[in-house]
Amino acid sequence: MHRNSEHAPSPLGIKSKAFRQIGHWLVDQIADHFEQLPEKRLNHGDTPGKVREALGGGALPEQGEDAGEIIRRAYTLLMNHSLLDGHPRFWGYIIGSGTQIGALADLLAATVNPNVGSWILAPMASEIEAQTVRWIAGWIGYPADCGGILVSGGAMANYVGFLAARRVKAPWNIREQGLRAGTGQLKVYCSTETHTWIQKATDAFGFGTDAIAWIPVDQNLKMDVDSLDAQIKSDKASGDIPFMVIGTAGTVSTGVVDDLDELSRLCKRHDLWFHVDGAYGAPAAHLEENAELFKGLTEADSVALDPHKWFYSPQEAGCVLVRERSHLLDTFSYRPPYYHFDDYGDDPGINYYEYGLQNSRGFRALKVWMGLLQAGRAGLEEMIRHDIEMAQLLYQIVDEAGDFEAFQTSLSITTFRYKPMHIDDDEELNALNEKLLVAVQNGGKAFISNAVSDGKFLLRACFVNFRTRRDDIVMLPEILRETARYLA
Length: 488
Ligand SMILES: *Cc1c(COP(=O)(O)O)cnc(C)c1O
Description:
Number of strands: 11
Largest sheet: 7 strands, mixed
Shape: globular
Radius of gyration: 25 Å
Order of helices and strands: HHHHHEHHEHEHEHEEHEHHEEHEEH
Bound molecules: pyridoxal-5'-phosphate
Number of helices: 15
Distance between the termini: 74 Å
Oligomer: single chain
Strand order of the largest sheet: 1-7-6-5-4-2-3
């Protein structure tokens, strides 16, 4: 008889009967959780101290514990002390609501445990990732034969685009010689509304944040293309080496889409890499009513987008697409002698370790692939449209209410503030709205975040949540008023 876990359980083995019991228990709990989500308190507003106390501060135990007990304890700890961002009234930051199929996908992915760094270690997982990348590219109208890879999120996807730009546009062999061989400062151009990833990228990859030319925005918060053009020209004249322009398709604060068409033409004129940060907004480019808004997106040399935002996938799942597949290989590939991965002749599979920064890689594609398949094209369109409608509905409601002031709605983000009749002073309103935000977040009935525009502290709701219904939107002003009364 062969050795199996029934007979010789190791410290990390679980006997089959016990595994079934625990597993079924957990799946039942999870089913209840999703069913009861709308009635649950979405945040407990605990202090870090309180959460630590609940967890307990003990050392790693000498003797291992029962797996079933551990799972029950983890379930209780997490459910009692987590922010439930899948709740129908979670509209903070830009966080996809997660899916039931994604939860099951992660269970299956961990079971197979493929290392999606190389094809032979993960044959089907690699092909599923490649198909997922093709589907995502097709969704935004990008060439299906582009290069692409799933990464941990939007920031990481942007870093990959940044590194490809650096590799392709630096006028010397930057992979071998690094920045020190440069004859001038390499410069990257983006608007002042750009997400903070660009600071991390220029810093961490050795350029320094001085490599960023921050371009002002116009009154619609889009990058001012004339200023951009002038800045590039004057930088060139003073010996800098412009290499990259970043357009944003859905800014993190207000959901504004830069004039991508203008930017792509400017990049062609100046021979610059055109990267689009579509971490949030790119999935909305698919809707026919948005064709004009996103025009030029498909001209980008690289695009970052985030399945864990507007494809609703559980964390973590980002995706970067690079128009010329070879540019990714040229940026990342090394082939050490101890990797023997190339035995398939004319029909090779993708070894993903050559396409990005990671070596060993998990199977994050599965939850994305399953989610796309479950919804289908029609389902995705319906959900993204619904999110945009919810943002517009909220705008309309706060605009019509006497005690709120509506600011902007773009894609699925709406900004506004509470403005009771008797207060007119901006400073007073800022203090009030800031207090209100914290109190609402801790209250657990709804979760929104904030934006700051023109010195005004604004409340901000972002809808990437297919569980939200119209009633949830109608409730928000009431929840805010009630919280304001409580604060007063
Ligand atoms: C969210 C976001 C990012 C960062 O993405 P992560 O998934 O949080 O790493 C970058 N840019 C924009 C425009 C974003 O909305």
